[in-house]
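Re: the multi-chain job from yesterday

Posting the exact lines I submitted so nobody has to dig through the queue logs.
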Amino acid sequence: MWHITKREIYDNLNSLRFALTTVLLLALMLTNAIVHLREHPNRVEKYNKAVTAYQNRLASYANESLYLLAQQGPGDLHKKPSPLHFCAEGGDSFLSGTVNAGDPFGYSEDMTGVWKLSYPSVTPNLENVRPDAIKLDWGFIIGYVLSLVALLFTFDIISGERERGTLRLMLANAIPRHTVLIGKFLGALISVSIPFMLSVLMNLLVISTASNLHLNAEAWGRLGIIFFISILYMSLFLVLGLLVSTRVRQSAVSLVVLLLVWVTLVVFMPNTLASMTGEFSPSMLSGEFWKRYRQLHQELDEKYEDRVWTDESDTKTLTARSEYFAKHAALDERLNEDRLSLQIDQFRHARSIIRVSPVTIVQHLLESFAGTGFERHLQFVENTQRYALQFREFIVDADRADPESLHLIGVREGMSEKPVSPKSVPKFEDTLNLNEDFNTTAMELLLLVLFVMVLMSAAYLAFVRVEV
Amino acid sequence: MMLTLIRRELLDNLMTFRFAVAVFIMLFLVVANTAVLIKDYERRLAGHKTEVQKSRKYMLDGKTYSVGELNIDRPPNPLSIFNAGLDKRLGNEIWVYYGHVPTLWDAEKHSSQNPFMNILSSIDIVFIFEGVLSLLALIFAYDTLAGEYERGTLRLVLTHPVSRGYILVAKYISAMVCLLVPLLMSLILAMFLLTTSASFSLSMPDFLRIGGIIFASIAYLSVFYLIGMLISAMTRRTSTALMLSMFVWGFLVLVYPNMIVAVIQPSNPPEERRASVHNHIKQIWEEFERERKQFLATDRHLEGDPYGNMRWRGGYNFEHFQDKASVLQHYYYAGAEIDGFHEEPESQALHVQNYHRFLVPLIIDTAERTWRIREPVLEELFILPATIDRAWLRLSPTGIYDVATQALAGTDLQGMQDFFTAVQQHRQSVIDYYYDKNAFGSRQWFSADKETVDWRTLPQFIFQRSDISLNVQRALPDLFLLLTLNIVLFIGVFLIFVRREV
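And the result, structure tokens for all chains:
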């Protein structure tokens, strides 16, 4: 078997396609690295600035009084940019980088509520008049270019030998057919992996030598997983090529079939299905949302109207106000969350439909492990929600520590007005969790493995039955 | 002789497996996607219609001039099915306010649909052609010359008294005929689907535009066929030719258009420029604010707040500065709708009328002044990089084809700007109408107690998509580029083939 593999590799190393593949992949990976080096420092700088602004804001309120902190909240919470952004862009430009935890409603000095979580959305496309383009990340290079290359390496792997008549010769030896098949597969796998590995190494070399970007151990681990996934994805197309190549007598026909399958599977299926999903999952009407919003707010306002809007400031009014503010913020927060979860459900649904295309699977996998894209955004949102709870608890605890306070959160007269140490205030820090990534992507990973297995057994069956 | 050659080639091509696959795949992709695209267009059109009605209702609800909500909704372009361009992407709701010159960058999206869905990519018919037509052309071309050479039939053909040029032309014509079959069949089916859909009302110029798109598609197809022929003429073996063709295809169609947009970076640092101009615009409005305050201070009846001294019964007033730094938007926005007064404030009302007679022309004037600063900078910040990108895209035939069909469909940047120019003209006519009616100095500007505004006499906004000749004129350079490319490639193929030893 090793003999077959070795022969296959030698054959490929001398061929034109090997040289072209190396050049193409190297050019793409270097471009990717250069673009990343140019853009990533800006992202990091922007994030650092935003975090500093957030901390300063928090500290200034904390130095002022606990009451202000309880009213204004922690402010904008920012998503940490992933150091592996070059692996998968994941539509990050369409995902908001912040969750807002602040912005209390305010009619007057006395009637200012407390902060709440809200989820802003971004529409970068409204300003952008540049031509559409797919982002040049690993997801694109692996998903589109590498799969095409894999087909170009395997379309004649069996049919070419048959055309030249060497297949008969090889099978005349005492080698079982499956050994031939596996040997050929391994040969192709290694010959495509060489230029791919070379370009990946160049890419990582360029990126890791830049002084201002450093990849930590976890990032390298993630890169390892991403590399493994790409090899798996590549083998999917190698096996597909093997299958078609065994079934079809002429290599030219085999390539035509493969290319058309590839175009449909990789280029059109994700796009067409994406346009179709709009049909399947009608979005929630924003009119309905606002109707519900107004109705619930009206109910709340009516309930508290006579107790809250008075000039008196006795304990009863203050208690009512504190309650009203808390409920008002909770209602806003719940409505925001409901809307967000509806949007998430709709998008999840759409994504699960597109998942029939292997390129979408691999892109989802890459973005999960690169820490970008949609799943990562959900993790970030979850982090902010967890932090919001923590922050609220801190306010209550800090208020409880003050014996002069009436413990009515959100009302000036009812709360501790002493400053708190900025150090004791919990700070938000966005984190990435690899375990969670594994959980969300397990299904997609399995699907990919399944595809490979099915095609592999089909290729085996086809090859065993083939007449030479 | 020529006819014999063509007939032979044609029969050769028609009987092949690849021809069957080409027809099938084109029909399948185009029909499936057209059906989806029609649904999508219908949805956008329905959204546009409800929005138009809604904004009409809002306009009629406004009782005073100053709170008139004049929203204009951009209708979807039916030809966006062929090339969506910027039609789906840019904002489609624009607000006409006398104190701000509306541009493409002030528009909003009317349907606040799920923002996550923007991540998913969309598709149009030209996109299918870009990918599949070019691939099919190369698949048809790779063995035209190399294959004959390999089989040895080339030598046989050349023993006849036929010039090599004839052979090339015959091969070219017959293959193009074969490739046109799936192209035209799929387009005819797509047109059939379009005409059966009730919401599509395509006019004569639209059909001409579609004709132009078909012409561009044929030119594009031919470019790739000639590229394939060139490769085939240069190589001795079909497998090498095929391999090279596929790499060329991958580079020109898949890699280059995406790579170039990622690589190009706007040359000047736009952030600083943006910030400085935004500050400049802000300063102009601050100057305006000083003048306004000064006017209020000189009139002792107003005492700093025009509405403060009127004891009104119901209604509202507002004033603030709208600001969006990323698109250099900054303007003063104010209005009032007062339902009635507690006591007759006749003299007071006259003073307020006087104030508006002074203020509104000042707002319009300031808006014009800021517009003169804003316009060139918007051009520099947004349009210039986009133009540079498109110029670089033209290095690939796919880029040329995309730009040409966008211009023909009217979904390119210029087509979009036509709409916003029309909106700007509409704003001007609204201002003229206000001047005619002496609206600024009237009581109806801020108060609805005696008479409310009759909005029905307001000039209507009418938008006609640009004339077909203009579309063609915009597409012409790129069409010429495609044709020139064809000729150059053909000459190249000819020269190589003529010198070739068989």
